[in-house]
Design brief:
Layout: H1 4-7, E1 21-22, H2 34-45, H3 58-68, E2 75-78, H4 80-91, E3 97-102, H5 107-115, E4 119-123, H6 132-137, E5 142-148, H7 160-167, E6 172-176, H8 180-183, H9 188-193, E7 197-202, E8 214-217, H10 220-227, H11 237-249, H12 251-273, E9 279-280, E10 287-291, H13 296-305, E11 308-309, E12 311-312, E13 322-326, H14 330-352
Parallel strand pairs: 1-11, 3-4, 3-5, 5-6, 6-7
Antiparallel strand pairs: 2-8, 7-8, 9-10, 10-13, 12-13
Helix pairs in contact: 2-11, 3-11, 4-5, 12-14, 13-14
The chain binds 4'-deoxy-4'-aminopyridoxal-5'-phosphate.
Length: 353
């Protein structure tokens, strides 16, 4: 009774290996300061969780609207942006397939499989931009396109012009701006003005991954339709309460942390480039993709033996021998650089001998 397309799906896996330094999931590396934790505890103590939460999460939406500079009517909330990707794939352009450049964030393809829609995947160019010619050549086959902006795991921003050219073919485009706070680049104006563009944001990369709050921003007419398929209580009471405190009283903490991560990103990039044989790729996000001369699984497990967890992304097209590291606190980044230096040295000896 379970259709073949579902049987073929693999369960979504993230790495759970124990490691002293975990730099594999692009979270904010700074813990929430004590005074904010206290305020959150006070608010949580008052939550009447024998009751259902506000199904519209209107107070949280108000705070989010202010935070992102949009109106509440432009917002649809998801249990993480992952859930919003499911909604979009269920609702937008119900005929035609779903386009994604590859390599990219895997949820776009997974959502297409779940919804039974055709996938149109086009490999990125050698410099990780959109292959416009191939993408336009296939444009009749898809009605919805996902662009992670900046892209995960490559870290770069696609050219805006190429995204617009694909949109001009009558394709609804979703700009997944999960890493917006680290890039400062956005399609927000388009999303607010046009009926063929939506922007996704998330609280996951700015210190609240555990809350599961994703934010879709679109023109009111579009947001209203997508909101109809949203599960009524998808944002839990505690998440609504904690996110409200964080986005009001915790703004300074968030902004300072993001700034520190951006500074560290540039330092880690420079230092990576000094390790023999290692090639880092420039990043506008809170992680860095890099290539080494050795098989990525060997580098990955060596690094784990030195207590550092990174993500092996070498199974993705174009990313042979590549790994991805999230930018951590300075001391974590030092531990990462040291572990990589040693792993590459160890493997150099092994492969030479
Ligand atoms: N989009 C991109 C591009 C991501 O990299 C991630 C997280 N890895 C997500 C969405 C998922 O975010 P959320 O935690 O809001 O579901």
């Amino acid at each position: 009774m379970i259709p073949e397309r579902i049987r073929r799906l693999k369960p979504y896996k993230t790495e759970t290996s124990r490691a002293k330094v975990r730099l594999s999931s692009n979270e904010l590396p700074y813990p929430v300061p004590e005074h904010l934790r206290k305020r959150i505890a006070e608010e949580i103590a008052r939550v009447p969780f024998e009751r259902y939460p506000d199904p519209t999460a209107s107070e949280l939406k108000e705070v989010l609207g202010e935070f992102f500079g949009v109106r509440e009517e432009n917002i649809v909330l998801g249990n993480g942006s992952d859930e919003l990707i499911y909604y979009l794939s269920a609702v937008v352009g119900d005929v035609g397939g779903i386009y994604t450049p590859v390599p990219t964030f895997p949820m776009y393809e997974i959502s297409a499989d779940v919804m039974g829609r055709k996938k149109v995947t086009v490999p990125l160019t050698a410099d990780f931009d959109i292959d416009l010619e191939s993408s336009l050549g296939l444009a009749d086959m898809y009605s919805l396109a996902y662009f992670a902006f900046p892209n995960n795991p490559t870290g770069n921003l696609f050219s805006r012009d190429r995204i617009r050219k694909i949109r001009e073919r009558g394709v609804f485009v979703v700009l997944d701006e999960a890493y917006y706070h680290y890039s400062g680049e956005t399609f927000l104006e388009d999303a607010l003005r046009r009926e063929d563009t939506a922007v996704l944001r998330t609280l996951s990369k700015i210190g609240m991954a555990g809350l599961r709050v994703g934010v879709l921003i679109a023109k009111e007419e579009v947001a209203r339709e997508i909101n109809k398929v949203r599960l009524p209580f998808n944002i839990t009471y505690p998440s609504q309460v904690i996110a409200k405190v964080m986005l009001t009283e915790g703004r300074e903490f968030i902004e300072e942390s993001v700034e520190k991560v951006v500074t560290e990103r540039e330092r880690v990039f420079r230092e990576l480039a000094t390790i023999e044989g290692v090639e880092p790729f420039p990043s506008r996000a809170n992680f860095i993709l890099f290539r080494t001369p050795y098989p990525a699984d060997a580098v990955h497990s060596r690094m784990l033996s030195y207590g550092v967890l990174v993500r092996d992304v070498s199974y993705m097209p174009r990313l042979e021998r590549c790994l991805r590291v999230s930018v951590g606190r300075p001391e974590e980044n030092d531990a990462f650089l040291e572990a990589l230096y040693r792993s590459v040295r160890d493997l150099g000896q092994r492969f030479a001998g």
